[in-house]
Design a protein that fits this description.
Elements: H1 9-49, H2 52-56, H3 72-75, H4 78-87, H5 101-112
Helix pairs in contact: 1-5, 4-5
Bound molecules: heme C.
């Protein structure tokens, strides 16, 4: 077989291969972003369902019973937030038994986010 010149069919085929890989990568990016948004929305739902809003307010703005959580990302890292929710605090009950790991992670996503999504109404579980 003779080597084809750089403009031969093989060159174009490999060009096509590179282009389709790039396209796949591009298609993947928005999906990662929306998975992140989904976790945040799930966190908002868990927040509404678990009674967090009772003390921290519907959008985490804080009440007399609990501090604001809207700037939590400046105060605690993901691990610390998870520990606080799992074990509670001085005046906060522990939620380690009530929430599974996926719910805990989604709450962390919510509390580490810059902007809270609209908080959904609690749903019956
Ligand atoms: C009975 C009221 C109450 C409920 C319900 C409650 N919290 Fe709290 N939370 C508090 C209080 C009070 C604090 C202040 C520190 C302490 O007591 O540990 C706090 C602190 C926190 C903190 C740390 C704030 C900081 O920077 O010091 C996080 C994060 C948090 N709560 C998340 C949650 C989440 C998520 C839920 C729901 C799963 C929840 N809380 C439910 C009362 C509550």
């Amino acid at each position: 077989m003779t080597a084809s010149p750089p403009t031969g069919p093989r060159f174009f085929r490999s060009l096509l291969a590179v282009a389709s890989v790039a396209l796949c990568a591009l298609a993947f990016v928005p999906r990662v972003a929306s998975a992140h948004a989904d976790a945040k929305a799930d966190g908002a739902q868990t927040f509404a369902n678990s009674g967090c809003e009772h003390c921290h307010g519907a959008t985490g703005e804080g009440t007399k019973k609990g501090p604001s959580l809207q700037d939590e990302r400046h105060r605690m890292n993901a691990e610390q937030i998870k520990e606080q929710i799992k074990h509670g605090g001085k005046s906060m009950p522990a939620f380690g038994d009530a929430l599974d790991d996926v719910q805990l992670e989604s709450l962390v996503k919510l509390l580490r986010s810059k902007k809270w999504p609209p908080i959904p109404a609690p749903t019956a579980q």
